[in-house]
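Review form for a predicted model. The reviewer records the input and the model, then writes brief findings.
Reviewer: anonymous (R2)
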Amino acid sequence: MPIKTFHLPDPNRQPPAEQRRQRALIGGAIEQRRLHGTPSDLKGTFVLDPVYRAEHEGQLRDWCATQDPRPLTIEVGFQMGEFAAAYAAQHPERRYLGFEVRKSYCETASEAFETGGVANARVALVDAREMIPRVLQMGSLDELFVFFPDPWWKPRHVKKRLISPEFVADAAQWLRPGGRLLFKSDVQEYADWAAGIFSADGHFDVERLADPQADIPLTLRERRCRYHGRPTWAVEAKRNLNP
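Model under review:
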């Protein structure tokens, strides 16, 4: 059991779905940020700032284009980029795209790509929930990874939690039939709750994986959990043929 309590949303205090989507965004809506913010001074060959640089949004759109025959993997929240670099190096036949809202993590990941000689990966400094629909052709995504997202423990912060009915409904539109959404957490309640949301959506065939590593490189969080003897959980949701 986690040290803190994993709170569930109050079903009696839920605003409309679109309002919930807006409240969940980290940093606020892109258009508002463009009006009042300035470009980040980013360092790194493979990191993009599509919020303040229109050309970077165009580069992301090109990276996700269906004309590219390579399968596309998107990771939402890639920590320090250790997994991203290892996965992209292990799968040079795939395109990797990571989304993160922390500038330092984007720069660290880009540095890891450069150090490892990885050229099939890009990362973007933006909330994935708002940018993915702007750059991805619906139904074209092969893999969506969500590893150890913030549980947002406090009741007033639950609205910012990444896994939600709205996010899962969006993911169903992003993924191709047979594509997978892979979720990992070291909070069992979060894994249980996520599995329930995946199943309730109706567009996924859901499986609790016996091997939480899921036969892919370990994330930094997983390494730390193993070091401290803490269990982790993995849930795989494959996009079915339901319209």
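Findings: The chain has nine helices and eight strands.
Further findings: The CA atoms of residues 61 and 134 lie 8 Å apart.
Recommendation: see findings above.
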